[in-house]
Amino acid sequence: MKRSEIIAELRRFFAYQELVCDHTFKRFGSNGWYIMPTSWLHTLLVIRRDILQRPMICNNYSSTSAMYTQRGCRCNLCQIVRDETAAGRCYQSAHANNVGCDFTVSGMTAEEARRVIVAKQELLPYPIRLELDVSWLHIDGFDYDNGMKVNFFNG
Fold it and tell me: What is the pLDDT of residue 117?
């Protein structure tokens, strides 16, 4: 698939604003897709459309229940990033590299979603990492270059 086709298809499932922090959205508007690599966009599309086949919630700025604002791509102004750097720690996460997001999957626990992704991993166009032992579904495009489609890590 061409990048433009991937983005057009991905827009059926996600608004750009859902996948980035509010600072990034304010700077680039709804056309900032170019900050995310094609491989990451293609991976998100396949996971949403072909593997999980359910709504996935990343950031939800207007929610009246639990509002999420830093579960997608994060910039240097995000509180999570600022807290790490203020403590003198280097912040090099998939979120900050525009290839990582945390999701809530409609009708599934995070563990159920991880199991489905593993069961259908042959559909993945690129390797991914899944975070273990968390109540949300963290997916990222960091590649350990070990020949595995799915790698696991603990935060």
Answer: 98
What is the total residue count of the chain? 155
- Residue 97 and residue 76 in contact, taking contact as beta carbons nearer than 8 Å: no
Report field, pTM of the whole predicted structure over 0.70: yes
The answer to whether 19 touches 82, Cβ cutoff 8 Å, is: no
Q: Give the residue from 50, 152, 145, 54 showing the smallest Cα distance to 103.
A: 54
pLDDT tens digits along 3-43: 999 999 999 999 999 999 999 999 999 889 999 999 999 99
Q: What residue segments make up the domains of the chain, in order of their start?
A: 3-153
CB atoms < 10 A from the CB of 79, how many?
12
CA torsion angle 115 33 145 113 (round to 10): 0
Output Rg (C-alpha) for the chain, integer angstroms: 15
Average pLDDT over residues 105-124: 98
